[in-house]
Structure prediction request, 369 residues.
Amino acid sequence: MASGDDPSERPRFCVMGAGNGGLAMAGHLGLMGFEVNLYNRSEGRIRPVRMRGGVELHGQVTGFGRVALATTDAAEALPACDVIMVVVPATGHRDIARTCAPHLADGQIVVLNPGRTFGAIEFHQVLQSCGCRAKVIIAEAQTFIYASRVIGPGEARIFRIKNAIPVASIRAHLIPDVLQRLRPAFPQFVPGTDVLNTSLDNIGAVFHPAQAILNTGWIEDGSDFEFYRQGVSPSVASVLEVLDKERVGVAEALGISVMTARNWLYFAYGVHGSDLREAMTANPGYSGLLAPKAIRHRYITEDVPMSLVPIASLGRKFGQPTPTMDSIIHLASTMMGEDYWETGRTVERLGIADMSLRELRAVAVGGES
Prediction:
């Protein structure tokens, strides 16, 4: 923030979720001088924040960020906040929408960080089904702004802040309103085209599930290795490249232009390479980010049902095959003992199975209040 900014004009934030991302975001907002509330569904993560009065940050951002309120009560956390930053796994978006519905007020902006695939559409539908009449803007970020981890009670490490993150809203003409509120804190947010673009530019769908599954032996052995560097062998990278082509193909079937994963790495981190593996391993933002300690991890339990399934389901709807993506979904379902086609964000569960492409684009771009 510029020293001359009027504090009364700064947006007031509520961060929902106190995991790896939410704790980092709440602490960073507090450190930058913004008033921020922190909500979490359970008490454990926020008790140390309440006791200390904020979050201790390490890494790219260092210092103590004050948190005005840390609570498990949404009725306390949400009122008087201008921007609600939802920072929970996408599997929790439905529950958070139901939690928010009774407490939202006209003029508030809800941003999913990130939406994964069709998060904003799902959130909007849940609010409607709950009878929420507040005139709020529902938006989603294409990816999460930080590479971060919780490192202790009330402490987080920010390994890297991404350079640029597209944001789009339901009713695309409201994107400038969203950015106007976000940019005093986060100039890294840039306008996305619409929520179809941010959803299909979901790079976590490419990087997370297949890479975790193909490194299962190493993960279950308990080995420490850098997930985005040592975990990307030439053979693993070949699978990621094909997954990326299938994702881009689904977008093209809808007449949408999305970034390749390699181009995204340059856009978000400013790194490049002759192929995807070279670009990933050259990224300093991935340095020190270790693989998960167990295979039952959000890289599968979130990114398969909330990222791969909706992309593949959309591909089926519009006649675009995704055989490698389907294989990863099948393997993940087998390993986790859960049919992700039944529980994930299929076009049927999202209520868009019978929509034409024109109708689907209308949901994303305009019309609905």
In short: Residues 204-362 form a domain with the N-(1-d-carboxylethyl)-l-norvaline Dehydrogenase; domain 2 fold (CATH 1.10.1040.10). The mean pLDDT is 93. The first strand starts at residue 13 and ends at 16. DSSP finds 18 helices and twelve strands in the chain.
